[in-house]
Design brief:
Length: 451
């Protein structure tokens, strides 16, 4: 006797009679979508919100007109409701002559007005009103939609589709088609003319346009959101790249000086004949602390180095190298002058390096954004720190060289360097059309008694 075991497919839903086919699951999902879109709380209160006034055209309008434009969709729906009331009242067997004509007009206008607060409920109300208006005007020749009901139902379809989503528009059209076919089969035999076909064709084109608008609007929102995320990521990446560069430069500067401290602390006892034991222990402690600090510094800042990063062979630039930088910039076509005020003195390596990089980036921006203009570099040595000002004039009128747009990395890097040193920075256009970058880098004075 042989026993055969069948393995069930992973993820296949089990039923009492076996496994459901893909067609069954597709139909089940479709019915769930129909129930969710048209039958789940259809008369829920969903008021139509104001129209956005952030478009390029509406932003230029006066405030009063822009405020009134927010209620433009409500006014359009109200005008169509009034139009359907008139069409319904004058299209009966006795147009405008009795209470039935007025009641017909009111029934046609009611679903249109309901789209302002209960869009899905307005659709079902329009379906229910259509045969009632036809029966109230028994002598009419249109079936299943009287002229007023035709305009009303078409308006309800479009407004509801605009306020919901494309899938709801598809289900509304399907229900409308089912109503038109069933009404023609069971009731429409005594009428001379059926307008179910024109309604289905007209509504199909109208709903197709609405669905395309939905797709385009959704795509625009996704593109805008993606552009926002991309801009934020670009800014964040720029910030991280600049911090990485600064960390590498600081690592080189601080590591060099810490290494010098460790070497001098080790060699100092040998420079004194018969040094005291306390002096040897003090220099040993200095060397141990310098080596420990250097090791910790390399461990922390070493993670920002790329695998292919190589330390520069030349020392880091300082303000003493500005003349060579200005010669290089002049060769590139920028007319630049340097003005130094105050008593020139040696500053901490981090301040010297940051000031050099700020001047370098500011002059690069002048070359890129204002080709042909002149620039001026001002270095001010003051008691509390160092002032740096780089200003360029406006770009001359007729110029063969066009400005090159940038991504804002230079200004971001300058601000990072200034913030690292607890300094202050301003950057912006000048009154004559040029651009100015002004920086102050504080330098703490060291007293000889504290050394």
């Amino acid at each position: 006797m042989t026993e055969t075991t069948h393995q069930q497919p992973a993820g296949a839903p089990r039923t009492g009679d076996g496994y459901r086919s893909p067609e069954y699951r597709l139909a089940q999902n479709a019915l769930q979508g129909l129930r969710q879109d048209l039958f789940h709380d259809p008369f829920a209160y969903r008021p139509m919100g104001p129209r956005p006034t952030t478009g390029p055209l509406l932003r230029r309008l006066p405030t009063r007109i822009r405020t009134a434009a927010e209620r433009l969709p409500h006014a359009v729906v109200g005008a169509i409701a009034l139009l359907t009331l008139l069409i319904g009242a004058v299209s009966g067997s006795e147009p405008g002559g009795d209470a039935r004509a007025l009641l017909t007009g009111l029934l046609c206008a009611l679903p249109v007005v309901a789209t302002l607060t209960r869009p899905v409920g307005a659709f079902w109300l329009s379906i229910a009103v259509s045969p009632v208006t036809a029966l109230l005007n028994g002598g009419g020749s249109d079936w299943p939609w009287m002229p007023g009901a035709f305009v009303s139902h078409l308006t309800v379809l479009v407004v509801t589709a605009l306020r919901t989503r494309p899938r709801t528009a598809v289900w509304m059209w399907v229900v409308t088609a089912a109503y038109a076919i069933l009404s023609d089969i069971f009731i429409g035999g005594s009428y001379y003319y059926t307008n179910g076909g024109p309604m289905l064709v007209t509504s199909a084109f109208a709903l197709l346009v609405v669905c395309l608008w939905h797709v385009r609007h959704t795509a625009q929102q996704e593109v805008t959101a993606q552009q926002t995320v991309t801009a934020q990521e670009r800014s964040r990446r720029t910030l991280l790249e600049e911090r990485t560069t600064i960390a590498r430069e600081l690592h080189d500067v601080v590591a060099h000086h810490m290494s010098v401290v460790a070497i001098q602390a080790e060699a100092a006892p040998y420079r004194v004949e018969n040094p005291p034991e306390e002096l040897e222990r003090a220099f040993a402690t200095i060397r141990e602390n310098a080596v420990a600090a250097l090791t910790e510094l390399r461990r922390i800042l070493g993670v920002v180095r790329a695998e292919d990063y190589e330390a520069p062979d030349a020392p880091q630039p300082t303000l003493a190298d500005l003349d060579a930088l200005l010669v290089n910039v002049r060769d590139a076509g920028l007319t630049v002058e340097k003005v130094v005020t105050g008593a020139v003195r040696e500053l901490p390596p981090g301040v010297e390096l940051s000031a050099y990089r700020i001047v370098q980036e500011a002059l690069s921006n002048s070359l890129r954004h204002a080709p042909g203009a002149s620039a001026r570099v001002e270095i001010g040595y003051v008691l509390g720190g160092l002032g740096v000002r780089v200003v360029n004039g406006p770009m001359p009128g007729p110029s063969l060289v066009k400005p090159s747009p940038g991504a804002g990395h230079g200004i971001t890097g300058m601000r990072e360097r200034v913030a690292m040193l607890n300094g202050e920075m301003t950057a912006g256009p000048t009154e004559d059309g040029g651009y100015e970058v002004a920086v102050f880098l504080p330098v703490t004075a060291v007293n000889e008694g504290d050394a």
